[in-house]
Write a structure and sequence with these properties.
This protein has 284 residues and is mainly α. The chain is built from 13 helices and two strands, in the order ααααββααααααααα. Strand 1 and strand 2 form a beta hairpin. Helix 3 runs antiparallel to helix 4.
Amino acid sequence: MIAHDSCAAQVKAWQGRMEHALSVRLPAADEVPTRLHAAMRYSVLSGGQRVRPLLLFGAARALGLDETQVEAAACAIEFAHAYSRVHDDLPAIDDDDLRHGRPSCHRAYDEGTAVLVGDALQSLAFQLLASDAALPAAPGVRLRLIGLLAEAIGASGLAGGQAIDVATQGERVSLAEIDAMHGRRTVALMRASVLMAAACAPRVAPRLHEALAAFAAALALALQIQQELLDGAADARYSAALGPAASRERVRRLHAEALEALQPLGPAADPLRGLAQWLLAPGD
């Protein structure tokens, strides 16, 4: 496995790359309609770990690709994630006033602009997958990328998971139901991240697709549970269902499952192993 310091340096380089890549693919703030474009940039370039692009880059490395070949796909994933955050923060859903320590989009601008920002970012994500010149040109690859992202953010993915979350607020739900909800809300987009990298690589065996998907699913749930522990929110689903000690134990087991899933990729998957360790122990 890659040493923690080396992994942290790689993560910092990838994060820096993503900030530039996202910035150049967003409309300029002084381009009409200026308020919409400024709000899009405000919402995307607001910090965060860029977990999904990191996973995409790590999977690409494991499959013998470099970042240039998948950068546009990483941007598409992050635009889709940003769109979901802008909409989730709206009063009709989570009603959050802050995002990464700053006013959320609808507070910094207004609710109507926030709705349009989400719409425009989702559209931009698919535009990149369809037309960015750096991605593989084969129509089958483009369709696969578009299909993976559409599935991850639609009713069977992120939107469906959010709908379940909204519908069950204040209710007592089982651990299996929480897992099912986050299988859509949290896992789907992270799984799409690694599978989109695989879609850009030539002749990836089905068992490696399965290994990457299993890795991403286990890691995504581990990250969700760990974030709830760190946040300490009263309405955290996993903390309420498991309690702190059992939650920490489940994070440990899911981390082990994620690493075990990578066995078919051998040493080539070390960037993903290091990334999982860095994400689950960021302060070490």
